[in-house]
Amino acid sequence: MSDRTRVDEMDVAEQATTGYNRHPSIMPAKKKPNAKPLAGADLIKEVCRRIRVARSYWDAHNNRACRGEREKAMALYETLSEAEREKVPQELRVWLRYRSEKYFGDDRTPPGGGKR
User: Fold this and answer.
1) Run of H or E residues at 3
2) pLDDT value for 52
3) Helices 41-59 and 90-102: angle between axes, nearest 10 degrees
4) How many other C-beta atoms can be found within 10 angstroms of the C-beta atom of residue 45?
5) CB 56 within 8 A of CB 78
6) Span 19-40, mean pLDDT?
7) How far apart are the C-alpha atoms of 109 and 116, rounded to whole Å?
8) Distance of CA 63 to CAs 21, 26, 28, 68, 98, Å?
9) pLDDT tens digit string along 37-91?
10) Considering only CA atoms, which of 10, 113, 19, 111 is closest in space to residue 65?
11) Looking at the record, which segments are called Disordered (predicted)?
């Protein structure tokens, strides 16, 4: 094994653990901006997916991630028309509404407010 190969393997291991890349010529792929906003069936699928992700975070007791996903799901859900909202499964709509009011409503203390 040459010294250069060993150095490259060490760089790969370091990048995997620290997220830092010493070689700026090796860049991660950039995310493509969404050219057109979602609409119709794709929007409904995305709302359902986000609610399911929020539920999985909730079940894993990851409240911060759940709050973020729930807010994204609510923002998308509020863009739906009445007819489109009916296409979201009732179980997901009930979960979103229940969690929104009981645990994340305006009357609840915002996260990070009680730190000393």
Assistant:
1) helix 3-18
2) 92
3) 50
4) 13
5) no
6) 65
7) 15
8) 31, 35, 29, 9, 15
9) 777 788 899 989 999 998 898 889 888 888 888 888 888 999 888 999 999 899 9
10) 111
11) 1-36
Q: What are phi and psi of 32, to 5 degrees?
A: -80, 135
Mention every residue, 6+ apart, whose C-beta is less than 8 A from residue 85.
77, 93
Interior/surface letters 74-105, b for 16+ CB within 10 angstroms, e for the rest: bebbeeeeeebeeebeeebbebbeebeeeebe
Q: Put residue 40 in one of left, alpha, beta given phi > 0 → left and psi -120 to 50 → alpha.
A: left
**How much is the pTM?**
0.60
> In this structure, what token pair is assigned to residue 97?
């509404």
Mean pLDDT of 8-26: 58
Structure tokens at 82: 């009445």
Find the length of the chain. 116
